[in-house]
Amino acid sequence: MPAPIRLRELIRTIRTARTQAEEREMIQKECAAIRSSFREEDNTYRCRNVAKLLYMHMLGYPAHFGQLECLKLIASQKFTDKRIGYLGAMLLLDERQDVHLLMTNCIKNDLNHSTQYVQGLALCTLGCMGSSEMCRDLAGEVEKLLKTSNSYLRKKAALCAVHVIRKVPELMEMFLPATKNLLNEKNHGVLHTSVVLLTEMCERSPDMLAHFRKLVPQLVRILKNLIMSGYSPEHDVSGISDPFLQVRILRLLRILGRNDDDSSEAMNDILAQVATNTETSKNVGNAILYETVLTIMDIKSESGLRVLAINILGRFLLNNDKNIRYVALTSLLKTVQTDHNAVQRHRSTIVDCLKDLDVSIKRRAMELSFALVNGNNVRGMMKELLYFLDSCEPEFKADCASGIFLAAEKYAPSKRWHIDTIMRVLTTAGSYVRDDAVPNLIQLITNSVEMHAYTVQRLYKAILGDYSQQPLVQVASWCIGEYGDLLVSGQCEEEEPIQVTEDEVLDILESVLISNMSASVTRGYALTAIMKLSTRFTCTVNRIKKVVSIYGSSIDVELQQRAVEYNALFKKYDHMRPALLERMPVMEKVTTNGPAEIVQTNGETETAVLETKPPPSGLQPANQANDLLDLLGGSDITPVIPTAPTSKPATAGGELLDLLGDLNLTGSPVSAPAPQIAQPPFLLDGLTTQPLFNDIAAGIPSITAYNKNGLKIDFTFERSNTNPSVTVITIQASNSTELEMTDFVFQAAVPKTFQLQLLSPSSSVIPAFNSGTITQVIKVLNPQKQQLRMRIKLTYNHKGSAMQDLAEVNNFPPQSWQ
């Protein structure tokens, strides 16, 4: 068989390949020849073949079939064979392959070899890919070599010991005696690897950390000698003596001085010397200074030393090297909480970094700028950050806007400044703000009563002709709907009021409705604002009715639902409209994500326990939501799902007053999804003559559910045409006493096999002498056709006293549930 080509020739041949396919063909041909040579047990060229195989492995081609050949080379007596064999083992083997265990004995023999270079190969291989089993077997030999007088072997043994400790931490104590004299070594290589070994032991064992703290003076002395020593060509890098060893010693000092007063005190002086004597014109000096800063910040150093460290980082910010500026910003960000005043001195330099072209530096500078904001500099810092928000890349705008919101909320010097700042953000980067920005600003405006006229005027001018920033338009629409009367009346005292007519305000909101840039949510805000203005404006109510009626046939289901319900307010419930659309009260700040029991499903709101209350009355106390559960006293009761009117800015169809009798009943708790009740598409309702409910009230007898203390409640029944499982109960409450009953609230609950929905009552006052009634609709879903049972709770005021009573209704006629 002819002699295989040399490695150099193979490299030259492969480099002549013009395409990947041609190179692959050459590699496959050579691999086939190498396999044939391995099969023939050709000892003469095994070393050459393995070397070529390692080159192909470096190119990314499979070379696993050469693993055993590496072991054969390791077992050879030739140094050249051993060198290639150990190199192949380090590249082709790891502890996941069982083959590596076969070389344990060879490594043990070579660790005891008479030639230091063979011993060095074995130490390198064990330190590179030795498994925990190999480390346990060979740790004794490594420990012996660590004590030898040969500096070439000691430095390799120290690094191998680091690998052994990482694989088998419990062997750490074996190397403890050998470490005693390591720091006395004059050879820089041994000294360097010894520091690495001590660092590893201190990081992995608190006991070792306490033991080695007594070495701090010795480490300080070594570092001082390095700084003060003259020029040494062997270890000099850009005029600095052995910077790699200096960095390693500084890292070890950082570990030893952490949370220890005595050790920190012992190294304060040398750290100050390093910080002041190190040349900063070269990158080598900057590396040492950076490690010095990290060490000063991590130990219990003196305050003056910490200020010196931060000043070094401040000088780094002026460096032309982007990497140095980046690490300076990152380090300052870590220290700003503990040394805030020292970092503040470099505020102008940090702000200048916002103009850097490098996006990584920009991001770090932005984060650090927000960390520097406090009550004293909030105006100046916000001015710079708002300028940055104007000019920064889109990927920064969301984080920057969120940071400005948080800082403004925390440090705002006045409510007007707070509102102006947030409006500036919405004007500049409205499309990038988080979803909670709109409700948060609305809450801020609502709670700033004295700023209502100023705010609505500013927002009105901000959206004139520009609807591109949707969150800004949403807030403006909400404010115009709430405070449109203040806008028209020109009551603004903070700035010169503008003259606006009712028609001009409606023109803006109608423009928002028809704008192509308006999202569905924004149109919902605008339509609700127009509806609110029907109680705040006097001359344009007919125009508002017309706009609302137009959107009753909108293709947008959300707008359509709102418009139809608002139309119903105008026609059937006009007496309730002023109370429903009255101005929002001051909102309380909620720190959580809202009530824990509320979840959104398909636009409807599911609530674990809620109550129905007429709109003119105020909100019930929070703890009253649980009264019904107390009344029912059992775990087999399903929650009540009311549809209560609200004047809150509507963002989902399920939050609006359901005046049309929607049959989409929500279910009991979220863990058990409710069956959906089919209903015809809304747009087809006008094409069918089939009534929603069967007109068979005469066929289902009515019942008296309650009759006590002059209060009488009757139930009448209907069955749904679209779903026979739905029973619609209409309650009629009458009062036979001589005085009216006020603040009347009716609550009901049914077992879990049912689902119940309470619609809004017609009023909260029951007239005296049976001169009028309150009506309220209850919908009950009974898919299993079980006998209907219900518990009711009644609360009202009568003769100046608050009345409350409980009752159970079990006499439902069979026709109502079968």
TrEMBL record:
<dbReference type="GO" id="GO:0006886">
    <property type="term" value="P:intracellular protein transport"/>
</dbReference>
<dbReference type="InterPro" id="IPR016024">
    <property type="entry name" value="ARM-type_fold"/>
</dbReference>
<keyword id="KW-0472">Membrane</keyword>
<dbReference type="InterPro" id="IPR011989">
    <property type="entry name" value="ARM-like"/>
</dbReference>
<dbReference type="GO" id="GO:0030121">
    <property type="term" value="C:AP-1 adaptor complex"/>
</dbReference>
<keyword id="KW-0168">Coated pit</keyword>
<dbReference type="InterPro" id="IPR050840">
    <property type="entry name" value="Adaptor_Complx_Large_Subunit"/>
</dbReference>
<keyword id="KW-0653">Protein transport</keyword>
<keyword id="KW-0813">Transport</keyword>
<keyword id="KW-0333">Golgi apparatus</keyword>
<dbReference type="InterPro" id="IPR002553">
    <property type="entry name" value="Clathrin/coatomer_adapt-like_N"/>
</dbReference>
<dbReference type="InterPro" id="IPR013041">
    <property type="entry name" value="Clathrin_app_Ig-like_sf"/>
</dbReference>
<comment type="function">
    <text>Subunit of clathrin-associated adaptor protein complex 1 that plays a role in protein sorting in the late-Golgi/trans-Golgi network (TGN) and/or endosomes. The AP complexes mediate both the recruitment of clathrin to membranes and the recognition of sorting signals within the cytosolic tails of transmembrane cargo molecules.</text>
</comment>
<feature type="domain" description="GAE">
    <location>
        <begin position="698"/>
        <end position="813"/>
    </location>
</feature>
<dbReference type="InterPro" id="IPR008152">
    <property type="entry name" value="Clathrin_a/b/g-adaptin_app_Ig"/>
</dbReference>
<comment type="similarity">
    <text>Belongs to the adaptor complexes large subunit family.</text>
</comment>
<dbReference type="Pfam" id="PF02883">
    <property type="entry name" value="Alpha_adaptinC2"/>
</dbReference>
<protein>
    <recommendedName>
        <fullName>AP-1 complex subunit gamma</fullName>
    </recommendedName>
</protein>
<dbReference type="GO" id="GO:0048471">
    <property type="term" value="C:perinuclear region of cytoplasm"/>
</dbReference>
<dbReference type="InterPro" id="IPR017107">
    <property type="entry name" value="AP1_complex_gsu"/>
</dbReference>
<dbReference type="InterPro" id="IPR008153">
    <property type="entry name" value="GAE_dom"/>
</dbReference>
<keyword id="KW-0963">Cytoplasm</keyword>
<dbReference type="Pfam" id="PF01602">
    <property type="entry name" value="Adaptin_N"/>
</dbReference>
<keyword id="KW-0968">Cytoplasmic vesicle</keyword>
<dbReference type="GO" id="GO:0005905">
    <property type="term" value="C:clathrin-coated pit"/>
</dbReference>
<dbReference type="GO" id="GO:0016192">
    <property type="term" value="P:vesicle-mediated transport"/>
</dbReference>
